[in-house]
Amino acid sequence: PFGMMGLDAMLRMTVIRLADGTLFVHSPIDLTRECRHLIKAIGGPVSHIVIPNNSPEHWYFVPQWALVFPEANIHVAPGLQRHWSTNEGMFGEVRVHAVLADAAPAEWSSEIEQALLDDPLFKEVVFHHRPSGVLLTSDTAFTIEDGLLHGSNDLTQFAAQSAAEMAGVRNKLGCPGFVKVALELNHPELERWVKRVMSWDFELIVPAHGTAPVQNGREAFRQAFQFVWES
Q1: What is the DSSP letter of 93?
Q2: pLDDT digits (tens, 9 = 90+) for 102-158
Q3: C-beta of residue 147 within 8 angstroms of C-beta of residue 139
């Protein structure tokens, strides 16, 4: 688990086996023994480690992966490459292969398309895996359903539910309030990005936080970003 102020960030890593048999790892989590076994069970070498935005929970475990899978290419959201080149003590020895852009690189463009939300305060790349019809998001859109908190103590459950409610992601896919505030300062870019994502043919959404998969993905995404058309 990765969290702050006692709240679990409910992280999720997604692994896609590409047509060439190699693995695309989105938002890597703690590389525990169990995680290594799961990667081995999927089969194929880890070829791409992808950090979709610059929130700490998405890059924190990358040095582990770089150490265990030194042949893998590391792709980072814009801005992170500067951190790795100047703060090796914090990030460890990590070599960035490429900075993610609005267009997919040749390594996966035949299977995965991507869109960069390029805001001065917040940058995130989302991915659409065409063969499965799955959209991968990180912080721009996710949901935390009450059932996900089953088994938590009363205080933790209340705090998590309250935080999800305030963020606008409790029991529904939403763009969390703390992200929405930043994005609305650059409305033209946000509108461009939403239109781009809505042009894709996806059925499911797998966020890097909270509950997954989100069914009826395109409609859920449209509703989550309805505020774009209302503002």
Answers
A1: S
A2: 999 999 999 999 999 998 888 999 999 999 999 999 999 999 888 776 555 666 777
A3: no
Q: How, if at all, do strands 134-137 and 123-129 pair?
A: antiparallel
**Order of strands, sheet of 23-26, starting from the edge strand that comes earlier in the sequence:** 14-17, 23-26, 46-51, 73-76, 98-99
d(CA 72, CA 168): 36
50: its two tokens: 């992808």
**Distance between alpha carbon 158 and the CA centroid of its chain, in Å?**
25
What is the distance between the alpha carbons of residues 221 and 224, in angstroms, rounded to a whole number? 5
Q: Which residues pair with 207 in a beta bridge?
A: 137
pLDDT of 56: 87
The more confidently predicted of residues 94 and 99 is 99
CA–CA distance from 65 to each of 81, 211, 218 (Å)?
A: 16, 24, 32
Residue 36 near residue 59 (C-beta atoms within 8 A): no
CA distance 130 to 85: 34
- Whether the CB-CB separation of 95 and 74 falls below 8 Å is answered with yes
Burial 25-37 (b: 16+ CB within 10 A, else e): bbbbbebeeebee
What pLDDT does 155 receive? 64
Residue keyed to tokens 């020895």: 93
Closest CA to 28 of 67, 60, 2, 68: 60
CB 16 within 8 A of CB 26: yes
Q: Are 203 and 133 in contact (CB under 8 A)?
A: yes
Q: How far apart are CA 118 and CA 115, in angstroms?
A: 9
What is the length of the chain? 231
